[in-house]
């Protein structure tokens, strides 16, 4: 009845306030680190993104500037924020694919962080990066929202191709490779074996006949020589 509605509202109110104060506490602890912030970069990128992805508008407003601050610290220390950039792309992909985030988050991410970057030493390079992450969030949400039921495979493949092309465009090889295998898997599931073969060829052609190792990828769970991966992929395509 009314009493339980009131209790529920009151509980939500308190819980909401607790989340905001915890968010503010995290922000103040981070700023208190001063010169030691660098020791926690890029490791804190994921936890900060996780806080900002909690479905609470005020908490998002409080926590998103942490991402900009991490970028700035890295810029000061290394004259670029490449490590943070790579980590943000990687963790945004992981977190949004696993169900976090929504359209409101995508908008806030850009609306809050772009002006902050513009008025900081990051300038245009920071703004461009934030716009690019906003684009990625949109592509990941599209991919996630296409249910994998019958009749949706084509749309799913379309979304996956968009992600594949995005990672190729921003030269994030590791993520590009991840989506090559995902797309090939989807083709196999759909019994489109020729398309699966062509997709794997994209990866095979990018490898050298060398003994240089590559990090784990696809079905290879540990570091392996490039030529072996290339050989295995050609075998798979010809089967």
From TrEMBL:
Return the Pfam families for the record. TPR_DOCK
Q: Which domain of life is it from?
A: Eukaryota
Domain DOCKER, first and last residues per copy? 167-239
Name of the protein this chain belongs to? Dedicator of cytokinesis protein 4
The family database entries (InterPro entries) matched by this protein are listed as: DOCK, DOCK_C_lobe_A, DOCKER_dom, TPR_DOCK
- Residue ranges that the Swiss-Prot or TrEMBL entry lists as coiled coil: none
Q: What does the record list as GO biological process?
A: small GTPase-mediated signal transduction
GO (cellular component) term, any one: plasma membrane
Q: Tell me its family.
A: Belongs to the DOCK family.
Q: Which GO terms describe its molecular function?
A: guanyl-nucleotide exchange factor activity; small GTPase binding
Query: Which parts pass through the membrane?
Result: none
